[in-house]
Amino acid sequence: MTIKLPIYLDYQSTSPVDPRVADAVYKSMQEDFGNPHSRTHSFGWNAEEKVEIARKQIADLINADPKEIFFTSGATESNNIAIKGVANFYKNSGKNHIITVATEHKCVLNSVRDLEQEGFTTSFLGVNKNGLIDLNQLESLITDKTSLVSVMAINNEIGVIQPLKEIGQLCRKFGVFFHSDCAQAFGKIALDVNDLNLDLMSISGHKIYAPKGIGAIFVRRKPRVRIKPLFSGGGQERGIRCGTVPTSLALGLGLASEIAKNEMTKDHQHIKKLSDKFLKEILKLSHIYLNGDEVNRYCGNLNLSFAGIEGESLIMAIKDLGVSSGSACTSASLEPSYVLHALGVDEDLAHTSIRFGIGRFTTEEEIDYAINLINQKVNRLREMSPLWEMIQEGIDLKSIKWKTH
Amino acid sequence: MAYSKKVEEYYENNSNIGSFAKGEKNIGTGLVGAPACGDVMKLQIKVDLQNNTIIDAKFKTFGCGSAIASSSLITEWIKGKNLDDAYKISNLQIAEELSLPPVKIHCSVLAEEAIKSAIEDFKEKQKTINN
């Protein structure tokens, strides 16, 4: 069997649209053009019906009430609404403290930093070497001024799963709202907002085979979470997110959620099988390190450090594979990943990291091809690496006095 | 970021990858950069002791594609040059030849340092031997 190159292994950054979803969205774009907020004709009523079906499909996946789901443009917007919305609503009652984690997505970190600029008190909780938070540390940060704790479910860079249930219990005990950025987790692992005591959840469409440009936020009704909206407008989505809901995109997210619910076990088995095979074969090369906890992780995200090989040069060598550098060296910044830094990964190893993302449409043939290619290229790059030469000679890289710039 | 054709060419060119025995008296070794910065270059030159001309050069590089290409390029350039001329190679020439974008200029700076460092190491070695 011939395989099509390049092979997509970057499912954390985005996912291809499921053909079933794409067909439905395309059909809807032709049939459901009415404004779902129009009350005066059947065009509007029809569109509204489609939006409400989608809302229920999303709610069903996380055991929420459809009235608790609001459409947004994606998880970045949902995270902004949750964090700034809660912080600003409750500041008048004297609560001005927000807690989050150092390894969160930039949109969470920067939302909290924005609040810091506006005078809020903030805490950025560190993580253990395995990427997970320490619950005692979290508890020690909570004060009677804390309004919100924001902790992501699955980390986008390293795939570790934070202990949401325990965090939820802690937040409930202290009467603090609990928000989770579930962009990487929604539709991938079982999430029950009641079991986890979640008050707010951010949801992304394009990570679960729906189109880009649509997401949602779950906002709990009982006990009620109040939010100061970011947008002023016509009061759509109960005022939480004004602006016309894009009917067809919402329908796509709804259908993608339903598919994810029905096929979660199947998807998981498929991804786990490929991920286990990939990891087992790649670890046969020596000096390869899996970043993040080995057990509490989502199997579709493998962040590996290849000692002696700079990540970007490996990405260049395996250009048949669409992967992403754990380090941000491919972007304009030359800093290695802040997430790996927070884990305490040595800086030289942080520069050697690559994230491999496996998803619903990855095939075993693609994984075999990837394993083979990586094997060849790792050996070539190590042969040309002065650091690998030193590692082989038993020289401790830390013992050398490097001339840093 | 897409790489320039020249970077790809030199990156793929394996001919000068390798090491000379460090202890040999006609070998100069430069090791520049730092693992924590994401770039380390080792450049070695083999010098004809009669006329101070570089007769061979080898490199090993830990770094991005541009860093590897920069070191590969300089090994080509310095072969056949005498030490003084090789010492004069500037990072701008390297950056221009490879069409490096601004964010990759440090790779060419490192390559220039590697040449200078290897030549200095060679000269240092000759002094010790002569004494």
Descriptive report:
The complex is a heterodimer of chains A (405) and B (131). Chain A has 405 residues and is an alpha/beta fold. Helix content of chain A is 40%, strand content 13%. In chain A, the strands form 3 sheets. Chain A has a 7-stranded mixed sheet with strand order 2-8-7-6-5-3-4, sandwiched between helices. Chain B has 5 helices and 3 strands, in the order H-E-E-E-H-H-H-H. In chain B, a hairpin with a 4-residue loop joins strand 2 and strand 3. With 131 residues, chain B is an alpha+beta fold. Chain B starts with a helix and ends with a helix. Classes of the chains: A alpha/beta (405), B alpha+beta (131). Chains A and B meet through helix 8 and helix 12 of A and strand 1, strand 2, strand 3 and helix 2 of B.
Topology:
The complex is a heterodimer of chains A (405) and B (131).
Chain A: E1 7-8, H1 19-31, H2 42-61, E2 69-72, H3 75-90, E3 97-101, H4 106-117, E4 121-125, H5 135-141, E5 146-150, H6 164-174, E6 177-181, E7 200-204, E8 215-219, H7 247-283, E9 288-290, E10 301-306, H8 311-317, E11 321-322, E12 324-325, H9 338-343, H10 347-350, E13 353-357, H11 364-383, H12 386-392
Parallel strand pairs in A: 1-11, 3-4, 3-5, 5-6, 6-7
Antiparallel strand pairs in A: 2-8, 7-8, 9-10, 10-13, 12-13
Helix pairs in contact in A: 1-7, 2-7, 3-4, 7-11
Chain B: H1 5-12, E1 27-34, E2 39-48, E3 53-62, H2 65-78, H3 83-87, H4 91-98, H5 105-130
Antiparallel strand pairs in B: 1-2, 2-3
Helix pairs in contact in B: 1-2, 2-5, 4-5
